[in-house]
Amino acid sequence: MPIDTDTKTIDHIQSLQIAFYGAGSMAEAIARGMINQKLTQPGRIAMLNRQNADRLTELNSQYGVQTILQGSSNEAFLKEADIVFLAMKPKDAAEAIAGIKPFISEHQLIISVIAGLSIASIELLLGRKLSIVRTMPNTSCTIGLGVTGISYSEAVTKEQQQLAEAIFQSVGITSVVEESYQDVITGVSGSGPAYVYYFMESMIDAAKAMGLSETAAKELVTQTVLGAVEMVRATGEEPAELRRKVTSPNGTTQAALELMSQKGLAETIASGMKRSSERAAEIGADIERSLKK
Ligand SMILES: NC(=O)C1=CN([C@@H]2O[C@H](COP(=O)(O)OP(=O)(O)OC[C@H]3O[C@@H](n4cnc5c(N)ncnc54)[C@H](O)[C@@H]3O)[C@@H](O)[C@H]2O)C=CC1
Ligand SMILES: O=C(O)[C@@H]1CCC=N1
């Protein structure tokens, strides 16, 4: 839920060095959001990738952030950081996090965006209890409309909580939850944007199949989705009520919705969301198992 980010917290963030370990889409979304919202200066951000020098050049020229290609000694840049984002894929996480153990110290705030990976696993990999923030953001952070679930390890201080919440509130809304809910948040808002894009792709394809040009199909569908979402936000009415206002008795919408319902659209959406959440738990459990070997 929104907190009031006071000027003291913002001033504090602006004085901090921020390192992103893993410079992929999620790291870019958060860094770009923070820069756009003027929560930090690009020069305060360093992004490290395992490979792909071109990607780093692009990030440097687009945002002005420092970039580092992983090498034998350059993880030392982590030592300079006050906040370290862990932003690699879950399959790379165990090796990557174990590899940075020598560069991490108690004063640093570790923020993970890795799906499924528990605070306990991160502590195991780093060899001790540290200030760890487990989050589940989404890519809409890029434009300041993200949703981020946040959970804290016991060592995270009140001041560090304010920092973490201010960072993610600069790129959207936040919800602080017990860690056990992070997989649910993954199924709802972490993966959520992709469900909406899939729905839009399906509508665009169907519009084209019915004869509209690609451009017209995309324009009509995008504005329809945008308008519907904005109606929910601007009117404060329930989606079900707004749906009823579109649906004339025995009209076209009723015909469409009856068919969609018969075909199990609601159940399909619910099972997909549940599957995402289960998959997050599986990913976390796989990593935990590999750590016990
Ligand atoms: N993409 C999304 O919508 C969301 C992703 N996440 C989480 O964010 C994390 C990153 O996902 P994406 O940004 O989509 O992936 P991505 O594949 O775009 O980026 C991952 C980056 O990590 C780098 N990397 C891999 N191993 C490394 C290592 N050992 N050292 C340094 N860098 C390394 C890769 O080179 C790559 O640039 C994942 O764990 C995912 O679960 C969380 C919420 C939403
Ligand atoms: O697909 C994934 O695994 C990541 C986590 C949530 C969104 N993308």
What would you note in describing this structure?
This protein folds into 2 domains: 7-183, NAD(P)-binding Rossmann-like Domain (Rossmann fold, 3-Layer(aba) Sandwich); 192-272, ProC C-terminal domain-like fold (Orthogonal Bundle). The chain has 12 helices and 8 strands. The chain has helices spanning 7-14, 25-36, 53-63, 90-100, 119-126, 158-169, 182-190, 192-209, 214-235, 239-246, 252-262, 265-292; strands at 18-21, 45-49, 66-69, 83-86, 109-112, 131-136, 146-152, 172-176. The chain has an 8-stranded mixed sheet, sandwiched between helices. Helix 4 links the parallel strand 4 (83-86) and strand 5. The radius of gyration is 21 Å and the shape is globular. The mean pLDDT is 95.
Quote the CATH topology of the largest domain: Rossmann fold
Give the helix proportion (percent range). Answer: 40-55%
Terminal Cα span: 39 Å
Spatial ordering of strands, largest sheet? 3-2-1-4-5-6-7-8
Oligomer: single chain
Domain tally = 2
Structural class: alpha/beta
| Rg (C-alpha, Å) | 21 Å
Query: What sequence of helices (H) and strands (E) makes up the elements?
Result: HEHEHEEHEHEEHEHHHHHH
Let me know the largest β-sheet. Answer: 8 strands, mixed
CATH level 1 class label of the largest domain? Alpha Beta
CATH architecture type of the largest domain:
3-Layer(aba) Sandwich
- Low-confidence spans: pLDDT under 50, at least 5 residues? none
Count of discrete alpha- or pi-helical segments spanning 4 or more residues: 12
Q: Tell me what portion of residues adopts beta-strand conformation.
A: 5-15%
**What does the average pLDDT come to?**
95
